[in-house]
Amino acid sequence: ESSFVDTSGDQGNTEAQGVIQSLKALFEGKTTGASIQYTTTQRGRVMLVYEGYRYVVNRQSLKNVFWRCSRYVKHSCRATLVTSKVQEVTLRIAGTPHTHAPEVSSMDLTTDLLDEFPELQ
């Protein structure tokens, strides 16, 4: 089941909070078989973590959110994934395989964003 988590970053960024609220509203009450977690980057952007890889929002359409690997520049990683905004949250791996090893273990993701942002509840 999806959960929102925070690992670090500037929590005062109201723009990031707005994005988090929007994504939370999109995925609230929806389920997925995949273990997806959401966090924020150091700059306050929303980040999706799946199977140890981190993704940032690349673009959105009416029905989907398109994510790209957070190591797009550093490792020239072109891996992408797509999450659906409609009905069940579905996840589809797209693009090429990652050019690097997974970076995040489940131990790295401990703080619930809802605890950090009571206004999201």
UniProtKB/TrEMBL annotation:
InterPro entries, alphabetized: Znf_FLYWCH (IPR007588)
GO molecular-function term, one example from the UniProt record: zinc ion binding
Limits of the FLYWCH-type domain: 38-100
Keywords carried by this UniProt record: Metal-binding, Zinc, Zinc-finger
Pfam families named among the record's database cross-references: FLYWCH
Protein name from the UniProt record: Mod(Mdg4)-55.2
Gene name per UniProt: mod(mdg4)
